[in-house]
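Retry 2 of 3 after timeout on previous attempt. Resubmitting structure tokens to design endpoint.
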């Protein structure tokens, strides 16, 4: 039986679940609720970097990403930050969708899966 390890478990979710050589991150949102899409995306990606490091991997090992935007009109602004962040030659399979967020201040949420 393969062990399951959880990072920062709470009542409803864990920040990450590690199982069978794969790291599954919960959707991450920015901390600056009044921030622009650029600021929130930068914060989200910094959190993803930190959680992947805590799990023992990094963004060069991303398998998939799902990006949620409150408005698709923010797509180019988010992509400018994403493109500067993603490891060259290591872009994951990715989807980007428009969605209503848990709080109206959230403008971007990103969820990733990575290999260890």
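Retry 2 succeeded. Sequence:
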């Amino acid at each position: 039986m393969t062990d399951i390890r959880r990072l920062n478990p709470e009542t409803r979710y864990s920040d990450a679940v590690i199982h069978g050589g794969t790291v599954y991150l919960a959707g991450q949102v920015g901390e600056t609720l009044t921030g622009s899409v650029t600021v929130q995306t930068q914060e989200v990606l910094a959190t993803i970097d930190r959680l992947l490091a805590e799990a023992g991997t990094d963004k060069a090992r991303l398998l998939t990403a799902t990006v949620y935007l409150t408005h698709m009109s923010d797509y180019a602004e988010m992509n400018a930050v994403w493109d500067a962040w993603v490891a060259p030659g290591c872009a994951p399979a990715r989807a980007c969708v428009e969605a209503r967020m848990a709080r109206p201040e959230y403008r971007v949420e990103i969820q990733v899966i990575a290999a260890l």
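Attempt log closed. The beta strands are 4-7, 16-19, 22-25, 28-29, 62-69, 93-98, 108-115.
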